Amino acid sequence: MSNNKLFVGNLSFDTTETDLQNTFAAQGTVLEVNLLMDRDSGRPRGFGFVTMSTPEEAQAAIGALNGSSIDGRALTVNVAKPREERSGGGYGSGGGRREYGGARNRD
Fold first, then answer.
1. What is the pLDDT of residues 19-72, one digit of tens each?
2. For the range 15-18, what are the long-range contacts, defined as Cβ-Cβ under 8 Å and sequence gap of 24 or more?
3. Terminus of the chain with fewer CB atoms < 10 Å: N or C?
4. 2 phi and psi, to 5 degrees?
């Protein structure tokens, strides 16, 4: 897996995908910008992902933009971790999420 996808955190709720696109374009070619929104409120969640065209451009963006300010907030920019790492069972058993499928009746 390539490491040209970046996690961008500590975003202002006023920051748009266009703002991120323009900011990161100074470091290279931006392939994709994904600003995560809260499902219930529709408001931004304060973080997103930017995919650069090469790992070198991604590293340049980290060096130039990590700690820089957009809309009065100091950005956190680093290589995005693969999503698969979240479901490894390393955080205990996972609580009650298994019960969404309905009650289990085993005789």
1. 999 999 999 999 999 999 999 998 889 999 999 999 999 999 999 999 999 999
2. 15/44, 15/70, 15/71, 15/73, 17/48
3. C
4. -80, 155
